[in-house]
Amino acid sequence: MATREAFEELTAGAIDALPEWVRQRMDNVEITIEDLPPADQPNLLGLYYGIPLTQRGDGYTGVMPDRITLYRATIERVARGDPELLRETIAHTVRHEIAHFFGISDDRLHELEAY
After folding, report:
1. Residues spanned by the domain of 107
2. What CA dihedral angle connects 39, 45, 50 and 51, to 10 degrees?
3. How many domains would you assign to the chain?
4. Residue 115, pLDDT above cutoff 70
5. Residue 101 CB: number of other CB atoms within 10 A?
6. Residue 50 resides in a domain
7. pTM (whole model) above 0.85
8. 43, 49, 77, 102: least surrounded by Cβ within 10 Å?
């Protein structure tokens, strides 16, 4: 199990590793870490909540930031104590949730073999 600080550093590294054009488009979105997923979704690694870029219109102003949440316990369970697998799982989850921010659905991610 990684410390909270180590998990946050791995998350920051995953964000830093994204292409520059992706990071530049990440306007009005915050990434947070929660220890546990919602009780009704115990296997959830991450969750995007907000208005995807593809659905934002001219009136998109003054809204609360979109949120990407990573669920630490679930991600660590998937990594099974392997530090490299933990890094990869965090990076994959960050990319997956950012794809939703860009308006890419789970079905499309499956078509792209991004899972």
Report:
1. 4-54+64-111
2. -140
3. 1
4. no
5. 24
6. yes
7. yes
8. 43
Residue 32 lies in a domain: yes
Which tokens sit at 67?
Answer: 């949120």
Q: Are 30 and 22 in contact (CB under 8 A)?
A: no
> What CATH number does residue 40 fall under?
3.30.2010.20
pLDDT, average across residues 17-46:
95
In-domain check, residue 59:
no
d(CA 61, CA 75): 33
C-alpha 87/C-alpha 15 separation (Å) is 12
Tally of CB atoms within 10 A around 55:
9
Structure tokens at 15: 């964000």
Token pair in block for residue 33: 């870490």
Please state, in angstroms and rounded to a whole number, the distance separating the CA atoms of residues 68 and 79: 20
The token pair at 96 is 């997956």
Taking only the tens place, the pLDDT of each residue in 56-113 is 888 888 889 999 999 999 999 999 999 999 999 999 999 999 999 999 888 888 887 7
Residue 104 parent element (H or E): none
**Is residue 20 in a domain?**
yes
Quick check: 9 pLDDT over 80? Answer: yes
